[in-house]
């Protein structure tokens, strides 16, 4: 396979080696791939809801979550990427950066550093910024952030899509990508507004 046609704006292109991990040879378009991944994600969410509750702020959990969400579609699901991308940090730094993020996330819970929605938004942004996997980072990070909210703060999950589909080009996706890019520059206001926390106190950090 040479590529997936119809990538949405802001998506990370897959290189030929990564595409070799696709378990279905007949897939040629982003729409076809999205259908397969969405079915896998639904199965992963069932696993997430039924699993025995354990500490979610671990490297093992984040990788297992990705494998459950995408492992029926990609052979490398749950494995940190080994190649440079147009987004994300150096692959050699992924492991240590994840550990730093998880340590910070635990500190935020234990010290009530941020309101729950702000903590989840910052957790989500950092995870996307690291971009640990070859594909599925946004969806994985949104589900991980919701799990952080529900299990660490006993707070309802975020309405990320608000009636839209964030895997396709639309105004909601444009606002989401813009909010993440603003957060890259340490301006969290658009992201907090996006997740419904426009009145959060974001003067910290």
Automatic annotation (TrEMBL):
InterPro entries: Fido (IPR003812), Fido-like_dom_sf (IPR036597), Fido_containing (IPR040198), Mobile_mystery_prot_B (IPR013436). The active site is at 131. Residues 57-197 form the Fido domain. It comes from the Bacteria. It holds the Pfam family Fic. Transmembrane segments: none annotated. PANTHER family: CELL FILAMENTATION PROTEIN, FIDO DOMAIN-CONTAINING PROTEIN DDB_G0283145. NCBIfam families: mob_myst_B. This is Fido domain-containing protein.
């Amino acid at each position: 396979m040479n590529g997936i046609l119809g990538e949405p704006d802001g998506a990370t292109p897959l290189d030929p080696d990564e595409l070799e991990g696709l378990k279905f040879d007949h897939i040629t378009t982003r729409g076809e791939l999205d259908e397969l991944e969405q079915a896998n994600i639904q199965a992963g969410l069932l696993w997430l809801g039924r699993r025995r509750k354990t500490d979610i702020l671990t490297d093992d959990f984040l990788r297992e979550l990705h494998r459950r969400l995408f492992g029926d579609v990609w052979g490398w699901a749950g494995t940190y990427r080994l190649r440079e991308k147009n987004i994300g940090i150096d692959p050699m730094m992924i492991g240590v950066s994840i550990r730093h993020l998880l340590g910070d996330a635990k500190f935020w819970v234990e010290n009530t550093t941020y309101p729950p929605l702000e903590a989840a938004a910052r957790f989500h942004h950092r995870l996307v910024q690291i971009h640990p996997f070859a594909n599925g980072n946004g969806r994985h990070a949104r589900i991980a952030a919701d799990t952080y909210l529900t299990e660490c703060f006993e707070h309802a999950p975020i309405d990320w899509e608000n009636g839209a589909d964030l895997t396709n080009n639309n105004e909601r996706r444009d606002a989401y990508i813009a909010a993440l890019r603003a957060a890259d520059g340490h301006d969290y206001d658009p992201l907090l507004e996006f997740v419904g926390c426009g009145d959060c106190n974001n003067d910290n950090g």
